[in-house]
Each structure stands twice: as structure tokens, then as C-alpha cells.
Amino acid sequence: MSLAIRWVSPPLPTRPPSYLDDTTIRSWLLTTDHKRIGVLFLFATSAMLALGGTFALVLRLQLLTPDGRLLDAITYNRMFTLHGVIMVWLFLIPSIPTTLGNFLLPIMIGAKDLAFPRLNLASFWIYVVGAAIVIAGAIAGGADTGWTFYPPYSGKTPTDVVPILIGVFVLGISSTMTGLNFIVSTHTLRTRGMTWMRMPLFVWSIYATSIILVLATPVLGMALLLIFADHAFALGIFDPALGGDPILYQHLFWFYSHPAVYIMILPAMGVVSEVVCAFARKAILSYKAVALSSLGIAFVGFLTWGHHMFTAGMSVFDAGIFGALSMCVAIFSAIKVFVWVGTLYRGSIALRTPMLYFFLFLFLFSFGGMTGVALASTSLDVHWQDTYFVVAHFHFIMVGGTLTAYLAGLHYWLPKMSGRMYPERLASVATLLVATGFIVTFTPQFLLGNAGMPRRYATYPAQYQALNVISTVGSWALAAGLLVTVAYLLWSLRWGPRADNPWGSEGFEWLTTSPPPTHNFAEPPVIAHPPHEYWRTPR
Amino acid sequence: VITPGHQPPWTDIWDAANEFYRRILALPPQASSVARKIDALHYFEITVMFAVAAGIAVAALYFVVRYRRRSEEDRPPRVRPSLLFEVTTYGGLLGFFLLVWVIGFAQYVGLAAPPPDAMDVYVTGKQWMWKFSLPDGTASTGVLYVPAGRAVRLLLTSRDVIHSFFVPAFRIKRDAVPGLYTTIWFEAPNPGSYQILCAELCGAGHSQMRGTVEVLPPAQYAAWLRDRMPRGGRTTALAERGRDAAARQGCLRCHTTDGQRHIGPTWLGLYGSRVPLADGTTVVADEAYLTQSMMDPMAQIVATYAPLMPSYQGQLTPPDTAAIVEFIKSLSNTTVAALPSKPTSAAPGGTSP
What we know:
Mean pLDDT of chain B: 86
Low-confidence stretches of chain B: 334-353
Shape of chain B: elongated
Low-confidence stretches of chain A: none
Number of helices of chain B: 7
Radius of gyration of chain A: 23 Å
Distance between the termini of chain A: 12 Å
Order of helices and strands of chain B: HHHEEEEEEEEEEHHEEHH
Oligomer: heterodimer
Largest interface: A-B, 94 and 87 residues
């Protein structure tokens, strides 16, 4: 047998030691174990998802009627700003890297922990501080500038943007630390035999994400500090009344925030690559294409920021270049979609909940990506820019893509993290509810954008009402589906049936017991080939 | 045989398809000369998109059924795609992406290039209303009156924060940025009234910053223009106001209007000309260049002139800026008589209008 992997799951009379054995509060809050930090992040980011989601439900409620009877305009503007800030910086950017990434990356590369365990703990607490500042700022009044903080409005707003800017700046420090930790760990801690071309695809995607985190986040920090200086000391860097240039800010902001979109989606692509292999019992159709397209996205993604500014008055020539480069980044995502579908070919497909989420991801992400291509064909963007079409497009990527992949990952790795299984039938029903809710919520928003409804509207012309009502009703189904999911996942943590590797998966993270012991492996594994090569072990 | 006066048969089919797509996609009426072309690209992309999505869905469904797990002992064979298959698939996709980019960008260039006979309208956004000024001094707030069948170029700026001028029925949108002039143009073939929306978050009144474009038949538009004139008099043309503002602000102490070289370049014949710059490049003196030269004079210094001019950022109000630009433009088509140049020792420009 060519398999040179040592399977560390001998039938033991008692349960093997696990990282969950020590149950004191202190042992959790001051842990340097990457798995425990991953779990801490899981609970913290999920709380933020709940908060941001609640804001979204209130926003949708306001939009039931054209004249907006629920909130006044400035409260509405504050609420969508907080929805954006919380979802982007407190949920989407940290979620998959800091939870699944933290938990799985060291195990997948056969390491005991990350390269800098204490830096990892510091990253968590800095995240908590940043989140606390943002929430305190929200309670103290909140900003109404949108999550983009465009000047000169952000300098003139009657609301207080400063606490939120500081909070986001602090969160950037946490992101950078985590990114750095992942890069160093991937370079230095891979176990014997694990060459770059044998790394799990999830590790590749987290590695590519980390490069973006480390390179782009400082630019955001810089732009936010300049906005802060403009606001607090009237420096006028971006204020034309003082000789500044508001368009300069847009360039700096999107230089970070466009790559940030890939920070959100790349880890999701990594999760999906693992899930499709495990549930089709097939090696990925084209390993190099998927691994290298992650790097392609990370690098070309830095050259497309100008497509957020086609109507901002940039030169026609620049707009053309940014449009063409955006097409070039889209091809990498298209490659992955084709490889995932191709991986199913001649597989042995088990339609469990993670796989249902995989199909949901595949479909929604394809639509999100293709509408992105449509937006990058510059003339159409002139009509769609700043309308609900763009809102629908990025929710298809971020909710339809990132959140569904995250849910696929949480179901797939729940036994790995907790040693227990979720209720399969209830989970399938909840998945269908989430799918229906999502499609009913966001598909009408494409049509609203076509019809010309601008985003960030507290009130709107009456002709847009019908589609808004459909979208709001959909948001209730989506929320219900997610609530059921949270409920049974929490239930499973305590009462779920015990499981070690219920999928028969040959991902490297399953080489150790579930839940893993504190140092992950009794002996470090030795790797001879990429994961998920089921054809090597005929039974 | 296609005889004059008869449309070729495919026109009807195309009209029906256009209307069908427009309705199911919830697009507004196509009320500008470019709307139909832009929508055609939209239809093309959405059709391909649904075809690809259907292909993915059908393939995935087929695989799920055909290759469902029959036993826990299943060990599927190894499958590797041929390099040729991969290269053709991805190359084909990239080809499609670049094709829609080429079509879209050609249209985008068209949106940026108004026909030479376009009439100009200055648009100023402020929290939370739109103001429209014609070069002859006629102004209106909230409602933009234009003649049908005539190209209109909009020169947009803002008095406070960034706004965005959006007319869904025309498929056009352009940000109005303080301190800058941006341009966009449209031609509405048919009379009607079309909604203007602000598309850039600008504060509490953002969603109420609405307006209307009233497209009038040419005769009715002429009547409207006549009615706007004060009784028995005439409005001060924008160019004349610009001449006064230029005198008041001291512009004319350095710039002549009769072609003579002075501390700064002359304004006679400046508009629309190619200006050689100190860094060896040239630039066309359009509205954007003229505005930038007032607000940020050091950005583009004219060759052989010293970089002396102070910035007028914050000194000139947007209406004055528009008026001065219009005055400079008038010196290229001589609708306003040029002033004789003054010697350097002339009295400070304190002449009030």
C-alpha cells in the first residue's frame, strides 16, 4: 500500500484526551491553544453576526413602505452604517480565517500550534477591544456615513464617526496579526513530507488571504487615520474647501476594500474545496489550478479597485484599464467553479448537509460572480453603480458565497471541533429554509437596481414598493433558517451523538482524533501525497 | 424587398424582444438615445449568464443522481482533465469576459464624449437639491428643462458633499464632486418627464434629493425660455457675470482677454485649444482643466510660465467658477466682446458689478 500516513485512531477503551478537557473559565480566556482561540472567535463573531443581522431585519422592515414610517432618515442611515461596519469588519473578514482557519490550519499542516500562540491570543483580545469600541460608538450615537466613510460628508456629518473609525483601526491590527501568524506558520511549521503542492486547498486559500490581510490592512489604517485627522483637527486632506481631494480618499479606501472582498471570499473557496472532495470522495479535479488561482486572486485583486469609481469622475482611460483588470480577476473564480463541478464527475456523492450548502454556494456564488462581470463592463455600471443591483451583487457573494460556505464548514467540521454530530434531517430542512429565504430576499434587489432604486434610501419612490415587500418577507425566512441552525448546532454541542470521522474523510485534519488532543497529534504525521486521494485506498 | 418607409422584418422581432426583456428585468423606459444600446448589452449578458448557470445546475444535478453514493465502501477512480480541455474552457471564458468588456467600454467612451453641438447646462448639487443654470443666465431648481432631440451636456459640481446625478430612464449617472467639474451627456428623443435621483449618500435628506428632467418639444422649450426672461429686460448672461467675477477676483490682472502674453496665459482662444505644459505634455483646455487651474494651479503649469498663481479653492463660489469658465469659453467663440488688456499698474480689481 502506497499510503504512508499513520492513522491515529486506535479503538481505545476510554475516550482519548481532548483539548476540551480543562473546563475552567481562566483556561479558556487565557488559552494559547489555537483550537480554543478558534472557538472563542467562533462565539464572538457569531454574536456579531446576530447583531448585524438584527440591524438588517430592522432595515428591511423600514423598507416595507415607501415613506419609511419606522425610523427617521438619520437613524436609518446610522443603522445601515452599523450593519455594514459590523458585517464587514466584525463578521465577514474575521469569521472563516479566525475560527476555521485558527482551528484547522495547524492541524492540516501537521503542527502542534501556530508559530506565535501568544500573538494569536493577543489578536483575539484586540478583536474584542475593537468590537467593544465600535459597539460603544454605536450606543453613543453611531455614524451615518455608510461603512465607506466617504469625505467630505464624513467630515461634515452631525453624527460622531470618530469612535467607529478608531474601532475599525484597532480591528485592523487584529487582522494583521492573524494574517502574519498564518503566513509564518505555513512557511515554517509544515510537517515532514508536506511540500507546497501537497498542502490542503483550505491552507492555500488561508495563505492567500493572509497575504492580502498583511499587505492591504495598513492602507486602510492609514486612510482611516487621515479621515480621523480631517474630522478631529480639520486638516483638510480630503476636504476640497480646505484644498484637499475627496477622490484621493476613494482610491485609498478601495485599495484596501476591494482586496478585502477577497479576504472574505477566498477562505470560503477553501472550505468549499475541502467539502466537495470529502463528500464526492474524489481528489480535486485540478489541484494546481485551484491552489494557484487563489494566489492569482490575491495578486490581481490588488489591481482592480478603480471599478468602484466608474462614475466618480475618473479618466475614461483609467476606467477602461480597471474594467479589463477586473475581467482578469474574474477568470480565477470561474476556474474554481468549473473545477468544483468537475470534481463531482464519477465521484461517490453523499448528499449530506455540508454538501447541500456546497450546492447552494455553487449556484449563488456563480450568480454573484457573473453579475460582477456584468458590472465590470463599464457602460452597464454607469446605470447600476450605487443602486440595489450592487447591493444584491455583493450580498450574493458575501451571504450567498461566504456565509453558506461557512455553514458548510461548520457542519462538516462540527464533529472535528466538538466530537459530536448535528441532527441531519433538521439540518437539511434548515438549509432549504436558508436557501429559500436568501433567494427571495436578494433576487428582487437585482430587479430594484435595474429599475433604478439607489441604495442607502430611507424612503423611496412608490414604484419600487412591490419588490421591496417581497425582499422583506424573504428576510424573515432567511432569519428563521439561521435561527434554527444556531439552535440545533448549540444543542449538538451537548446532546449530539458522539462521532469521530462520520464522513470517512481523508482530509489531513482527520488524521487525529475528534476532538483533537491539546497538541493535536500523538506523533507528527508524515505526508506522502495531497489530501483526499481516495482512489489510493481501495476497500 | 425593403422599400423606403418599410422597416425590415427583423425590426419588429427585435422590438418585441427588447420590450419582453425590459419588462421582465424591471428596467425603466428607454428615454435617451443610448438607453437601448446599453440595454442590449445587458440582455446579452443576462442571457449568457442564465445559460451558464443552467449548465452548471444541470451538470451538478446530473452528477448528483448519476454518481450518488451507493455504498460506504465506494472508492471512485482517479480522474484527471486533459490540459487541452482546461485551456480551451478557461480561454473561452476569458474571451467572453473580454468581449463584454470591449463592447461595454466602447459604450462608456461614448457616454463620455458628447456630440459637438451639445448645449451646456451647469448642474450644482447641494444638500438636498439640484440647481440648473444655462449659459444665458436662466436658472431653475429641482426641474431641468431641456428640448427634445437635442444633445445636452451636463457640467456637474457640488457646493458641499459628493452627490450623484442619476436619471434611470436615461441610463446615466455621474458624481457631483465639490471643487471639480465632471461631465456627462444625454439626448432625449421624446418629450416626457423623467425622475432624477441622488445616488451618493449625502446625509439625512439623501433619499429625498429628487428632481425631474422635463423634456419639452422644441417649440415649447423656446416658449419656456422666453417666459423665464424678466419682464421688459434680460437676464445677465453667465459669461458676462463671469467677466465681472474675473475682474472682481483679480484674475484679469494676470490673464489678458485679447491675446497678449502677460503674467499668466491669455484667455483669448484658450478654451478648446491644446495647451503645452511645463512637463512636456499637452492638455486640452476643457472645463475640467480650467476648473483645476483655478482650484489647484500647480497641478498643470503651462510651459514657459512661472508657477505663481495662488489657489482659488474656497475663494470662488461654484456659481462664480461656472461663470468664469463660461466667460473663458465665450472668448473662443466671441459672443462677449474682449476687454482691452490692462497694464500691470492698473488699479486693483475692485470693480463691483
